[in-house]
Specification:
By secondary structure, the chain is mostly beta strands. Helix content is 5%, strand content 41%. The chain contains 1 helix and 14 strands, in the order ββαββββββββββββ.
Length: 217
């Protein structure tokens, strides 16, 4: 068979690591992705991150300086150049956002009409949601009307993994979901949901082990 379909797991060495590290990891961890020596790609699972259109179409900037444990993050728009003064009304009610080099998982949005700060606010559930996806929670210094700017992060969901033996490559398909409001609705009202599909080739010589779904040869 030239193509092996329905692959559920790929184990690959981390940067500057080799096959022995992966073997040690498999023996000790039994597929649990807790070692820095290897990477694990799963279907279903998350793989890859992409920049969404929220934060670009309606740019949002940090309004006040926040420390590494802040859980309420005020955002506003620049004084010039952006028509909307309600930047987060177009964002989904939960997701991921990057500010400087930190990625934050937020679980809600407070509109400026009811927030304590008087600005739209990202709401973060706990300090564990600061500095996620390999980033570090730090202090961010606000320059009013300038930045730093919030960027929406979309996580790719793995939809299929196949091994093309003739081409010597594992093909990983991922899809991102983009949620964008067409009005100042803060998660309600008119929404546009779009999907983007990506094909990520993974050379066979960087994959140490793979596993197929039960019953698949």
């Amino acid at each position: 068979m030239a193509v092996i379909r329905n692959i559920s797991k790929l184990v690959v060495p981390a940067y500057n690591k080799g096959p022995k590290d992966v073997i040690d990891y498999i023996n000790a961890q039994a597929w649990i992705p807790t070692s820095a020596d290897v990477g694990l790609i799963e279907h279903p699972g998350s793989f890859g991150s992409y920049v969404g259109s929220n934060g670009v179409i309606t740019q949002a900037i940090l309004q006040v300086t926040i420390n590494a444990t802040a859980l309420v993050i005020p955002a506003t728009t620049p004084v010039l150049g952006v028509p909307s003064m309600f930047p987060l009304s177009f964002w989904p009610l939960n997701g991921y956002v990057r500010v400087d080099d930190e990625i934050i998982k937020y679980t809600g949005v407070n509109p400026m009409s009811t927030s304590v700060s008087g600005f739209d606010e990202f709401v973060v559930a706990s300090t564990a949601d600061r500095g996620v996806l390999g980033s570090t929670a730090v202090t961010h210094t606000a320059v009013v009307g300038v930045g730093p700017v919030f960027v929406e992060v979309l996580l790719g969901a793995t939809t299929k993994i196949e091994y093309n033996k003739e081409q010597g490559v594992f093909n990983v398909w991922t899809r991102t979901t983009q949620d964008f409001g067409t009005a100042q609705s803060y998660g309600a009202g008119d929404r546009v949901i779009t999907y983007n599909t990506y094909l990520i080739p993974c050379p066979e010589d960087v994959v140490t082990f793979f596993e197929t779904a039960p019953g698949v040869n």
